[in-house]
Amino acid sequence: MRVVRGRRSGVVIAVAVHSTQAGPAIGGCRIKPYPGWRDGVDDVVRLARAMTEKAALAGLRHGGGKAVIMDADAVLDERHRLLVLEDLAEVITSLDGAYLTGPDIGSAPADMEIIHRLTGGLAFCRPESSGGSGNSSIATAHGVLAALEAAVDHVFGTGALAGLRVGVIGYGSVGRLVADELAARGCAVTTGDLDESRRATAEAAGLTWSAEDLLGEEFDVLVPAAVGGLLSEERARTCRAGLIVGPANNQLTHDDVASTLHERGITWVPDVVASAGGIIHAVCREELGLTEEETTPRIRAIGTTVTEILTGARDSGTTPQAAARDLAARRRTAVPA
Ligand code: PHE
């Protein structure tokens, strides 16, 4: 773990490497404000740990890591953003290849291009025009849809999505792709986002916009696609969805929340499984040299993993979280693809 105050930017940057057992740690660079630097450090540690599990469940030869840049305002201005990225690149370089970064909340392929250049290649998802695999949001959304289809099949006994009432929390880069696609497939989709300026686009796509707390509303499927920490013990006790599956990282405030959801008959698909499309796509395209056609089935395989986890949980009477951990441990010791 490295926590530095960037000597060029003055911004606090934390990089956590949770595991390099299976290979170099992989995980995105998150740029957002935190109440204090301690909160950012706690977050990066949790996020890095989740990436280890995510990579193992995705069958990748990688461990987990994450970077957070604890400011949002400081990077609004292009010149200052460059200074922040230079500071981050210095930290990444000092880790000698143990950590490979990628885009996450607040960062984009253009940032990855800069980090890639400054670190001599330690960043995924540069723009396609620069030889990278580009924006990972589309692949992440495909992975979420594969997870959602498999989970709907498991919970409701039918693969048909038409007619389902779906709530999508967050209409950002991944949330909007998932929400629009579900609406196109005949689901009744309600969405909301702290950023009200997204409302017009959502409504134009045929979605219902809501400023209400979607966690308290009744849905067949709830898709958390905003920042994590949505499901606290208390919220899990009042949540009214049948199934929860979405790309937001670290959706539970605490591990015990998984049991609360389970006891209330709510099926929760661990975010480490549902959100893996982005890293699978980046690694397949940039590291394994696979084509788009060869990569797609690898992303779709998230559905098979979800089925395996939910069936395992049902058969053994455990939570999907416990079943996912179990599967991650088994996949880690198996020879990864
Ligand atoms: N935001 C991605 C994730 O959490 C991070 C990422 C994407 C990292 C692509 C590398 C490549 O999975």
UniProtKB/TrEMBL annotation:
Any one GO molecular function term: oxidoreductase activity, acting on the CH-NH2 group of donors, NAD or NADP as acceptor
Domain spans labelled Glutamate/phenylalanine/leucine/valine/L-tryptophan dehydrogenase C-terminal: 136-335
UniProt-listed InterPro entries: Aminoacid_DH-like_N_sf, Glu/Leu/Phe/Val/Trp_DH, Glu/Leu/Phe/Val/Trp_DH_C, Glu/Leu/Phe/Val/Trp_DH_dimer, Glu/Phe/Leu/Val/Trp_DH_bac/arc, NAD(P)-bd_dom_sf
Record keywords: NAD, Nucleotide-binding, Oxidoreductase
UniProt superkingdom: Bacteria
PROSITE patterns hit by this protein: PROKAR_LIPOPROTEIN
Residues binding NAD(+): 170-175
GO BP terms in the entry: amino acid metabolic process
Active site: 66
Pfam hit, one: ELFV_dehydrog
SUPFAM superfamilies cross-referenced by the UniProt entry: Aminoacid dehydrogenase-like, N-terminal domain, NAD(P)-binding Rossmann-fold domains
Family: Belongs to the Glu/Leu/Phe/Val dehydrogenases family.
Name by which UniProt lists this protein: Glu/Leu/Phe/Val dehydrogenase
Source organism of this protein record: Saccharopolyspora terrae
Native organism taxonomy: Bacteria, Bacillati, Actinomycetota, Actinomycetes, Pseudonocardiales
